Amino acid sequence: MKRLHTLYRLCFAALLLIGCQTLSSCIDVEEHNDTPQGNLEALWKILDEHYCFFDYKQHEYGLDWNAVYDKYKVRVDAHMNNEQLFEVLADMLSELRDGHVNLSASHDFARYWKWHEDFPVNFDVDLQRNYLGTDYKIAGGMKYKILDDNIGYIYYESFDSGIGEGNLDDILVSMAFCDGIILDIRNNSGGLLTHAEKLASRFTNEKRLVGYMQHKTGNGHHDFSAMEEQYIEPSANVRWQKPVALLVNRHVYSAANEFAKYMHVFPLVKLIGDRTGGGAGLPFSSSLPNGWLVRFSACPMYDPERQSTEFGIAPDYPVALNDADAAQGKDSIIEFARKLLRQ
């Protein structure tokens, strides 16, 4: 990766270590008064100078950040209490439609969940239990089992969960005689990018370009570096050489969305299920005059065709859970994957 601006390089290094966890302030901002109006202006300006998706979201749904300021400044007055101010600021941030944009105070945490709330879940723990049973094995953050048709099944719920090289070796060796693997990351809302990269490296035999990223170079909405390549290199340990069905749904977000992007490049991998949730901006943090913390997307990431995955990745095979299968205790998405791998 090319040299980054010093401040962003330090923050990005921290992100690689702690993923999408909340960071301490990485952005220096000008001082504003600790008043309702001062806090609104500080929040609006932090985003105006450092948020990374203004152009993209203006194109996608007509976002106008200046108009957003005009809309919300009239809702603020000097006599409002913290709860009232928090509600206004949270509503303003929701205009960005970004699950990586949060506002934290001692009394509340503002979050945007409509990126998945308006979509079917396409995951049922009770149905999954019919496949895993109670005799599944656990390695690191993964549950795994060989199904009765000689298909391996692995469930990874969160990239926050630990995953070691020894864990992956043991899992893949145990499935060496399987016809294929179902790798299920449905409802995985992200975590550590290092875990995503480590897992993806087990499914390629050569260094592959998996996407691009940029970083901010100034305070303008268009101030970005050139696109910098993202690569996944093959692991020096056990690697899988047979087909893989990667199961995804709308709850696949952030680092899990990146993992789906990586895997989509590999020829033996097919994505099955629903469009992923997105979250293609590395998050940074800053603080308001009153001490509230704001987290936001600051470094945009793209697929190998240089297209943003902020609003998700389409599966190769769109499949949804259906009531007829569920009545028989079957997960439609798992069943489709089994048939595909048996072919």
What do these coordinates show?
The chain has 343 residues and is an alpha/beta fold. 34% of the residues lie in helices and 19% in strands. It has helices at 6-18, 36-50, 54-61, 65-73, 82-94, 114-117, 125-132, 165-174, 193-200, 255-265, 323-327, 332-342; strands at 102-105, 108-110, 137-139, 142-146, 151-156, 180-184, 208-213, 228-232, 244-248, 269-273, 281-287, 293-302, 317-318. The strands form two sheets. A seven-stranded mixed β-sheet has the order 3-4-5-6-9-10-13, sandwiched between helices. A hairpin with a 4-residue loop joins strand 4 (142-146) and strand 5 (151-156). Helix 9 runs parallel beside helix 10. The model is unreliable at 1-25 (pLDDT under 50).
Question: Average pLDDT across residues?
Answer: 92
Give me the Rg, rounded.
22 Å
Q: State the major sheet.
A: 7 strands, mixed
Total number of helical segments?
12
- In order across it, which strands form the biggest sheet? 3-4-5-6-9-10-13
Distance between the termini: 40 Å
Would you identify the regions where 5 or more consecutive residues have pLDDT less than 50? 1-25
Q: How many β-strand stretches?
A: 13
